[in-house]
Amino acid sequence: MMFTFGLAFFQLMVYMATADCSPKLDNAVVEDLLTMLVKFKGSDNRNTSKWRDIPAFTASLSDVKNIDAKEIVKFDKVWTNNGNHYDPYTGIFIAPREGLYHVSTTLMSVSGKTLYAHICLNESRTVGLFPGTGYSEATANIVLHLKKGTKLQ
């Protein structure tokens, strides 16, 4: 397994301010954004319940974590998990169908530590991130064509 770290968003990128909001409010914000996206898309089918069919997840770590080389990060805070295709116990997202997926990840190294990470598909590296040492951040955005059953970690 390859070492990866970050937040992934599929077919949609949502930036959320977490502050002191309740999970119900955070989920309501994501649901509203997904509903607007479906309406904006301009499809003939304007049924807003269709946004629930979009495979999407937002997840994060709630605290600093020491990560070993080649370890898959298992995010302990799952904000959104449409379709439950992300498994927080394994840290793996499995594509439910073939299509284009937008993946975004942001990571930050801690003081005095160097961090290097990859987004991996079926254990093969794609884009890599190297934020540097000590409270430096890196962000990657990539659009990937995934086949049904592809594992993203």
UniProtKB/TrEMBL annotation:
Q: Which UniProt keywords apply?
A: Secreted, Signal
Q: Which residues form the signal peptide?
A: 1-19
Name the chain's protein: C1q domain-containing protein
Q: Name one GO cellular component term.
A: collagen trimer
Q: Does the keyword Secreted apply?
A: yes
What PROSITE patterns does the record tag this protein with?
C1Q (PS50871)
Residues covered by the C1q domain? 50-153
Compartment(s) where it occurs, according to its Swiss-Prot or TrEMBL record: Secreted
Q: Indicate whether Repressor appears among the record's keywords.
A: no
Quote the InterPro entries the UniProt record gives. C1q_dom, Collagen/C1q_domain, Tumour_necrosis_fac-like_dom
SMART domains assigned: C1Q (SM00110)
